[in-house]
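Request: Mind sharing a record?
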Amino acid sequence: MKKNKEIFEKANKKSPVVVYDYSQIKLMYQLAESLKVPKTIFTEEEAADYLRVELQTLKNYAKKKKITWKLIGKDKIYTQKDLDEFLERKSRFHQNF
């Protein structure tokens, strides 16, 4: 029951239309969740979370040019493609041992 209440509250916050029927809210919430666009650009903190490493570890990889990043203003930005390529290289390296 608690899960249903959480879904109702989340959907109610996202919905610009007042809906009174719980089944309508649940359906709208599920539709909104299914239409989400996957994240492909990451900040440093998000990239570290994606790689499951500490922020300082990510910064060390970037400093040693082991991982590609782009500078937008003063912020380093990482793309999902670059992060996935890094993980693939790292995975192949460990498989050789």
User: Anything to note?
Assistant: The beta strands are 41-42, 70-72, 75-79. The chain has five helices and three strands.
